[in-house]
């Protein structure tokens, strides 16, 4: 993966596709992305232009685009912005897709889907429907959001530069499945194991990664532990362990903005990332917020609770 027009059309075309994306769909998007040299060229192409792409020998590049494929490509053309960089377009579309999925998750949550544990409810003294619904709604949605955010962060990294690759599929890994691999212009590769936060690493993990980093360095390549947010001089669990057990630990870590700026090759990328995510959320949600949507859903679930159970005792009895 890399921040190229080919990957942009394939990845973002798949996001706008209505339904499960097949390899055939991706193959067509891939060919279209390879055909155009600029985002402007792709954006201004008609569906007929896309449908009639030919090889240098004059053969059609693929079978006619289906209605769903045409719709996905049209939506992508409408939503891409030629006044910003390709990397910013990736941020914008990936963030919008993340928010949309979270809004759908909020809308789709049900009382049955909460999988309530009656013993936990008693231990937490959830004695009213409001306490129960609020606790389980926020717990379930928080887990969903955190998991989805992990995938978003991974994509934001992989599409932040033209020479960034998914380490899990990279041929040379020196015995470790790294999250991200960067191919430098000087031919030197950088291998990075990414952790979401500065308190997510324990001693066993850190010692294993230090050993893996040492192995990469012995081959005259670079390797790091990357942490997506925080400060290098912050007082965190992971940095305390690193400082205690890893020699020259600062040379082996990229923390917060260091990580984003290193992967992207842009010293201000962390600012571009934050600003573009904020602007996208503002434009997509308007005056609403996901917290507001959750609170509205809780009100709806309380009505469902009252209609189905009436009381906490009746509800608890239904769980056995």
Q: Could you please describe the fold and organization of this structure?
A:
The structure is a single chain. The protein is an alpha/beta fold. Helix content is 57%, strand content 7%. The chain contains 14 helices and 5 strands. It has helices spanning 5-16, 23-35, 39-43, 47-51, 67-79, 86-108, 118-123, 129-158, 203-217, 237-245, 257-264, 269-285, 290-308, 312-318, and strands spanning 164-166, 180-183, 189-195, 222-227, 253-255. A 5-stranded mixed β-sheet has the order 1-2-3-4-5. α1 (5-16) crosses α2 (23-35) and α1 runs parallel beside α6. The protein is flat, with a radius of gyration of 24 Å. The N and C termini lie far apart (49 Å). The model has no long low-confidence stretch (mean pLDDT 93).
Task: List descriptors.
alpha/beta, flat, 5-stranded mixed sheet, single chain, 320 residues, 7% strand, 5 strands, 14 helices
Itemize the secondary structure elements and their pairings.
Layout: H1 5-16, H2 23-35, H3 39-43, H4 47-51, H5 67-79, H6 86-108, H7 118-123, H8 129-158, E1 164-166, E2 180-183, E3 189-195, H9 203-217, E4 222-227, H10 237-245, E5 253-255, H11 257-264, H12 269-285, H13 290-308, H14 312-318
Parallel strand pairs: 3-4, 4-5
Antiparallel strand pairs: 1-2, 2-3
Helix pairs in contact: 1-2, 1-5, 1-6, 6-8, 6-12, 6-13, 8-13
Mean model confidence by pLDDT: 93
The count of strands amounts to 5
Order of helices and strands: HHHHHHHHEEEHEHEHHHH
Structural class: alpha/beta
Give the helix level as a range of percent: 55-70%
Question: What's the gyration radius in Å?
Answer: 24 Å
Distance between the termini: 49 Å
Q: What coarse outline follows from CA principal-axis ratios? A: flat
Across the major sheet, the strand order is 1-2-3-4-5
Let me know the largest β-sheet.
5 strands, mixed
Give the count of helical stretches: 14
Uncertain segments are: none
**How large is the share of residues in beta strands?**
5-15%
